[in-house]
Amino acid sequence: MPDDFETMWSSLAPVGRSASSGGYFRQPFLSAERELASWFEEQARARGLTVERDGVGNLVAWWGVSTGSTDHAGAVVTGSHLDSVLDGGAYDGPLGVVSALAALDLLVSRGFSPSRPLGVSVFVEEEGSRFGLACLGSRLATGAVSWSRAKELQDRDGVYFADAVASAGLPGSSDSSLLDGVATFVELHVEQGRDLVDRDAPVGVASGIWPHGRYRYEFRGRADHAGTTRMEDRADPMLTYAMTALAANKQARLSGERATFGRLEVTPNSTNSVPSGVTAWLDARASSPSSLEELVGAIERQASERASRDETLLIVTAESVSGAVSFSPELASRLADRRGWPVIPTAAGHDAGILSAAGIPTAMLFVRNPTGVSHSPYETASVQDCLAGVVALADVLGELAGDPS
């Protein structure tokens, strides 16, 4: 018998969890994430679903599609991801996968039979925590990123994406039919904020995703002795970086947007040396494309001005930029209006945004997060709200995949 929601959740809880922080380390193609992928396939087969995998490990478990068939015409797909950020929370991603399986169970218990293929998906490397490009699996599945580009991406240890894929026993791929024929995608996700808390609502519908980007800032200076080099004789890139981080904070606060330097690499990273180089990654998000452009431009201008004074060199590279996503307003209102669910925006990126940009009508459901904290061991959701999310998702899937008559 397939496991129920709470049993599935309990079985996932220990996988990839840090004993010291309580956070999760489920990076793509490493042991914890691969264990979860195997767990998903076992759960899918226990339900009699047909599992399909592409060349990079994206999965869809199909109800109503026979083994070997690639006919997904009119399909409705739900699901999310199983990887995490470094030291991340339990709910970001896995909640959508577990809820999808539980929603199918609920539909079965209601005697529902889909009139079109119904699938549960798991996309790889959604967070970008290992190879730096968020939603990489769904970008490959939709053709938004080519295999020739993706295979050259490297992790922090210099491992190429192609080699990581091969180490997992996967062939790699430049083409995918995994999403051919998909007519609608619905992703359930824990809310990464407090909007639903403020509205006193357990479930909400997403209106869209803010545009956002990741930018690599390389500050180059001159290594020197920390004791013998006078302050006025230094070309210290750490000073340029420090001012840039403060400038990013100020510009984001003034504009009501988001700017975060969350990753830093220092060379030579020695206590008693002036560094020769600092590389920092800026995550910037804004309510509109023009606002994002203005925010990133203001930060870069201030950084360049400071570099000139510090006699350092600044190189800025946009590693990934995702435009604004507006989910299907017709679908959002159809799901929300008669159920009384609020429709809210999000500043977090999701696979649903990639599929929407690829032309697939897409919707998202959010489950209330009582603290609003995410990408952290303190991310949480109550069992009661999670089960409400399962019911909500089952209702939506039943409506979308049922007999239109």
Automatic annotation (TrEMBL):
Zn(2+) 1 binds at H81, D92, H189. InterPro entries: Amidase_Cbmase (IPR010158), Bact_exopeptidase_dim_dom (IPR036264), Peptidase_M20 (IPR002933), Peptidase_M20_dimer (IPR011650). Zn(2+) 2 binds at D92, E127, H375. PANTHER family: ALLANTOATE AMIDOHYDROLASE, ALLANTOATE DEIMINASE-RELATED. It comes from Nocardioides agariphilus. Transmembrane segments: none annotated. Belongs to the peptidase M20 family. It holds the Pfam family M20_dimer. Binds 2 Zn(2+) ions per subunit. Keywords: Hydrolase, Metal-binding, Zinc. The keyword Zinc applies. Its cofactor is Zn(2+). Residues 215-310 form the Peptidase M20 dimerisation domain. This is Allantoate amidohydrolase. Allantoate binds at R214, N272, R285. It comes from the Bacteria. One of its GO terms (molecular function) is metal ion binding.
